[in-house]
Structure formats: structure tokens, C-alpha cells
Design a protein that fits this description.
Blueprint (H helix, E strand, L loop, with lengths): L11 E2 L2 H8 L8 E5 L5 H8 L4 E5 L3 H11 L4 E3 L16 E6 L5 H10 L7 E9 H7 L10 H6 L3 E9 L4 E2 L6 E8 L9 H12 L7 H8 L3 H7 L12 H14 L2
Parallel strand pairs: 2-3, 2-5, 3-4, 5-6
Antiparallel strand pairs: 1-8, 6-9, 7-9
Helix pairs in contact: 1-2, 7-10
């Protein structure tokens, strides 16, 4: 019997209704699909029913990877490796659909890694990902709200995000202590061009380091009080970090890059 490893944040999805909902979020017939953390293969079976062109799965756990090999044989391509150490941009010749019941302890790290790699072409058609509900609320938060912060800004730069549903602990084995949420991500056609996504990470880190303080101190730290930037972006330095819109942060990154070019 396969047991979930707490150290890897494993909670296996067993609810058939939720599995159906996940798989119906995206059309995958005759498309390349990537599943992150397939675990015992419950969602994998549902994906195969939809007749994808090819199914890749990334599973770090050696025992689970071997078990998947026994269950599915040559129907799937198993990558027995750490998803954080894989460059997905080199794996596929065409855009893929990604499903993932992400380990809660590294879910934001995985997502931010993918976003930081979006310097050129996007390697996926869409992402259908599960997060701890509290994290999902931070991802989809709008500005001027308490949940708005670095994660919201980074995720919304290149991606449209839609919440599909919330999922109760009873849908998993073992049961987590928190609710989960399923989110759907797909690329934006219009977005503010940034040369290096790491600069977005830096700007938001400095601004939200003291999220209840006024903007003046972090702005001066990054821009040395540059009045031209203040006037161009119409920024009130008496506001707090959560009061600035998504686009204002993206434009701040552009100004930051111009000053250092």
C-alpha cells in the first residue's frame, strides 16, 4: 500500500467529482499534457480517458514513480525528478496543458519559477493547478485588498487567472487540515514588457517588505527619490504598497530597468 509522505506534502486526490471537474477545465484531446505530482495516478487515469496525444508526468518520489510505471506501463512518460530542478521550456516541441495537485509546501515556488522563465515564448497553453485556499486567495487578489501582495502581482503579470472551485479536505487522502482551491491560468495577449522577470520579484519584495508603511521609503531605496518617475506614473508616496495597481508595479519595473540600462 502506498503511503503519503508528509515531507513531500503529499495528499492524494480521491474525489471522483473533483477529478471530473479538473479534467473538464481544459480540452486536451490530441494535445500534449504534463501532470505535476501524479501520486497514485488517480488524475492520470482521467487524463488518459480524454485521449491526449502524449502524457508526461513529473514525480519526485521513487516509489510512486515505480508504481505509476506498473499501473500505466507505456501509456505515459514518467520523469522521476524534482520539478524545481527541471527546465520545462526544453522538454516539449509544442505548447502543453499542465495539471497539478501541487505539494502545498512548494506550490508557490513552482509557480514563481515558471513565471520567471517566461522571458520569451510561453511553453504552455494553460495551467490547471490546485493550491491551499489561502494561497489561492493571495494569487487572485486585486489591489486595495488585504490579500493583495507580491504573489498577486507576479502571477498576474503574464497570466489571466480564474478560480474554478474550492475543495474540501474530505476529497483527499490523507485529509489535509485546510481547504484547497483549483485555479485556471492562461497567457495574456497584452502585458507590460519586462526585460528580466527577476526585477519584478525584486521590486515587489522591496515594496512589500513593510506592507503597512508608506511608499516613500521603498521608492527612495529603489529610485533615489526620482521625481520624473513619480510624475510619469502619477504615484502618491503617501499610499501603502497594496494601494498600487498591477500595471503600476509593472511600469515601475520598466522604469527601474531603464535607469540601469
Amino acid at each position: 500500500m502506498i503511503k503519503a509522505k508528509k515531507s513531500l506534502g503529499q495528499n492524494f486526490l480521491i474525489d471522483k467529482n473533483i477529478l471530473e471537474k479538473i479534467i473538464n477545465t481544459a480540452n486536451i484531446e490530441n494535445k500534449i499534457v504534463l501532470e505535476i505530482g501524479p501520486g497514485t495516478g488517480n488524475l492520470t487515469s482521467y487524463i488518459l480517458k480524454k485521449k491526449p496525444k502524449q502524457l508526461f508526468v513529473i514525480e519526485k518520489d521513487n516509489k510512486l514513480a515505480a508504481n505509476l510505471e506498473n499501473i500505466f506501463n507505456n501509456k505515459i512518460t514518467i520523469i522521476n525528478h524534482d520539478v524545481l530542478k527541471i527546465d520545462e521550456t526544453t522538454l516539449f516541441k509544442e505548447k502543453v496543458t499542465v495539471f497539478g495537485n501541487l505539494p502545498y509546501n512548494i506550490s508557490t515556488e513552482i509557480l514563481c519559477k515558471w513565471i520567471n522563465n517566461l522571458k520569451n515564448n510561453i511553453w504552455f497553453e494553460c495551467l490547471v493547478l490546485m493550491f491551499q485556499k489561502e494561497v489561492a486567495e493571495r494569487i487572485i487578489a486585486d489591489f486595495n485588498t488585504s490579500n493583495y501582495g507580491r504573489l498577486s502581482i507576479i502571477c498576474n503579470w503574464r497570466l489571466n487567472i480564474k478560480k474554478i472551485c474550492d475543495i474540501k479536505p474530505g476529497s483527499f487522502s490523507p485529509k489535509p487540515k485546510i481547504d484547497s482551491s483549483l485555479l485556471y491560468f492562461y497567457p495574456k495577449t497584452n502585458f507590460v514588457r519586462i526585460n528580466n522577470p527577476n526585477n519584478l520579484e525584486k521590486i515587489t519584495r522591496v515594496f512589500f517588505n513593510q506592507r503597512r508603511k508608506m511608499l516613500k521609503k521603498p521608492f527612495n531605496q529603489l529610485f533615489n527619490g526620482n521625481q520624473k518617475v513619480i510624475d510619469k506614473l502619477n504615484i502618491d508616496l503617501q499610499l501603502r504598497p497594496h494601494n498600487l495597481s498591477f500595471d503600476t508595479y509593472y511600469k515601475l519595473v520598466r522604469e527601474y530597468e531603464k535607469l540601469r540600462s
